[in-house]
């Protein structure tokens, strides 16, 4: 009984604990998911937007300068006069470079194919030289200008963004390509900033997926190298759109988030990459706190359930053992208590007496004063009995208005004097039954138990004596 009660409490505890763990884990996964969504749908695209708008801002001024140069009458006149004074063009380019603080200024003439630069005439461009492909691309372009990112002809180490502006005369004849070059410094400082501040890698890849620019300091992209296959697979899904976000699981339990944005001016993809390692630290901390709280809450619930069930089961046990009206034990319990009492009296070799008591003419009390008044009298009688008997003695409510005593360490003479006292007390008591009082008497039959005698045998003898007492006038007792 106790074991199954404990098992029930334990089962409730386990169910509550499992419920709490399930709730904690669910909220953990949702929180983690929302962190991931936040990274891939907001943070990375925002970084990408910042960099792209920086690129556009950076390109605006050089494009304007190149446009001015392409429409400058000096350039047109100088060209039409047959490029007689190369120094004039070199000086013009030098002035532009100084005035606008660009890193290069150039003009390539269509008629001579000469490459004029602020530092002099560098070379003659040729269709067969791959390094000069940009010129022919600009020449055949339908747009006024083409942006090209390349190493500088004047400084091969330096990555430069060239604004190649087509020079067209008034009658629409193509005269050559003019423009300025700018460094990727600002974009580079953004790449540095995102790396230092957020640990994000920012780099550019071309349409084939090859890394074209990853900052002046050539950021460490070894993680990309070691997970090449995954990156390539991610890239293949990214190039289908101008802008997209993907993520994949890399070894060591890391998640890689990638955002790509096509930069039409460069014909490159800008990639913002973040490897998750610690992003969800707070979520994980929250999970641990949740789990600890779940454990504490489960323990509290366990203790509460245990306390409540113990209270109820004690109450139920009491109800099963004791008579509600009088507080005396009931018939079912008597048997067990009797076995204990007789075992103890045999062991100690002490006398044990049994008394049967019945209230005289009790029916009249009910008839005259009502059933509730009868109840009050019965409980009043029981109270008097309890006050008179010892703690070790057993009082059992044997029937409606019948009681049975088992008096430990009590022989017939001691029992006789006790019953006499009881008879007198009952007779002298006026039981309060609301507006009036009731006086009653009781009759009793008592017997001393023989060793190894059964309860029914002893009861039968006491009952016979009670019957005799009733028959012989009531308010008395008989023993035998
Ligand atoms: N109020 C109340 N009455 C009870 C209860 N149990 C039994 N009785 C009543 O007690 C009365 C017992 O009546 P009887 O057995 O005829 O005997 P009596 O009137 O006491 O007369 P004698 O025993 O012959 O002296 C019956 O009327 C029962 O209804 C109880 O719990 N409460």
What does this structure look like?
The protein is α+β, with helices and mostly antiparallel strands. Helices cover 52% and strands 23% of the residues. A 6-stranded antiparallel β-sheet has the order 3-2-1-6-5-4, sandwiched between helices. Strands 8-7-11-10-9 form a 5-stranded antiparallel β-sheet, sandwiched between helices. Helix 1 (2-70) runs antiparallel to helix 8 and helix 11 (371-388) crosses helix 12 (412-428). Bound molecules: guanosine-5'-triphosphate. Guanosine-5'-triphosphate (GTP) binds at residues 358-363, 366, 371, 374-375, 378, 400-401, 470. The site of guanosine-5'-triphosphate has 14 residues, from strand 12, helix 10 and helix 11.
Can you tag this structure with a few keywords?
six-stranded antiparallel β-sheet, 3 domains, Alpha-Beta Plaits, 18 strands, EC 2.7.7.65, 480 residues, Beta-Lactamase, alpha+beta, binds guanosine-5'-triphosphate, Rev_trsase/Diguanyl_cyclase
């Amino acid at each position: 009984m106790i074991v199954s009660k404990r098992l029930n409490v334990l089962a409730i505890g386990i169910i509550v604990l499992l419920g709490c763990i399930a709730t904690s884990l669910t909220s953990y996964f949702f929180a983690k998911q929302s962190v991931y969504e936040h990274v891939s749908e907001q943070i990375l695209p925002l970084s990408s937007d910042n960099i792209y708008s920086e690129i556009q801002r950076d390109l605006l001024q050089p494009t304007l300068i190149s446009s001015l140069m392409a429409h400058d009458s000096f350039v047109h006149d100088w060209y039409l006069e047959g490029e007689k004074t190369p120094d004039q063009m070199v000086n013009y380019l030098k002035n532009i470079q100084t005035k606008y603080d660009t890193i290069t200024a150039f003009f390539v003439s269509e008629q001579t194919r000469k490459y004029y630069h602020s530092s002099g005439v560098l070379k003659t461009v040729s269709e067969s030289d791959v390094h000069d492909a940009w010129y022919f691309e600009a020449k055949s372009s339908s747009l006024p200008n083409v942006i090209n990112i390349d190493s500088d002809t004047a400084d091969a180490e330096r990555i430069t963004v060239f604004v190649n502006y087509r020079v067209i005369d008034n009658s629409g004849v193509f005269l050559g390509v003019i423009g300025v070059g700018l460094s990727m410094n600002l974009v580079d400082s953004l790449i540095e900033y995102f790396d230092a501040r957020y640990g994000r890698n920012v780099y550019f890849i071309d349409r084939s997926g090859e890394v074209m620019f990853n900052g002046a300091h050539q950021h460490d992209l070894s993680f990309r190298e070691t997970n090449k296959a995954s990156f390539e697979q991610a890239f293949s899904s990214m190039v289908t759109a101008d802008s997209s976000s993907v993520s994949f699981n890399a070894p060591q339990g890391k998640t890689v988030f990638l955002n790509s944005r096509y930069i039409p001016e460069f014909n490159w993809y800008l990639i913002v990459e973040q490897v998750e390692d610690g992003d969800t630290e707070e979520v994980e901390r929250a999970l641990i706190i949740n789990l600890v709280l779940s454990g504490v809450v489960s323990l509290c619930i366990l203790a509460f359930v245990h306390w409540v069930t113990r209270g109820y089961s004690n109450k139920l046990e009491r109800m099963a053992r004791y008579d509600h009206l009088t507080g005396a034990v009931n018939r079912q319990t008597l048997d067990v208590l009797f076995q204990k009492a007789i075992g103890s009296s045999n062991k100690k070799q002490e006398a044990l007496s049994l008394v049967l008591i019945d209230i005289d003419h009790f029916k009249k009390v009910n008839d005259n004063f009502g059933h509730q008044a009868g109840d009050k009298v019965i409980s009043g009688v029981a109270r008097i009995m309890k006050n008179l008997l010892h703690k070790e003695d057993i009082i059992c409510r044997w029937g409606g208005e019948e009681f049975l005593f088992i008096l430990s360490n009590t022989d017939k003479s001691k029992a006789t004097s006790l019953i006499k006292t009881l008879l007198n007390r009952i007779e002298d008591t006026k039981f309060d039954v609301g507006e009036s009082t009731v006086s009653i008497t009781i009759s009793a039959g008592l017997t001393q138990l023989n060793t190894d005698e059964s309860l029914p045998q002893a009861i039968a003898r006491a009952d016979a004596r009670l019957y005799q007492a009733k028959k012989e006038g009531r308010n008395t007792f008989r023993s035998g």
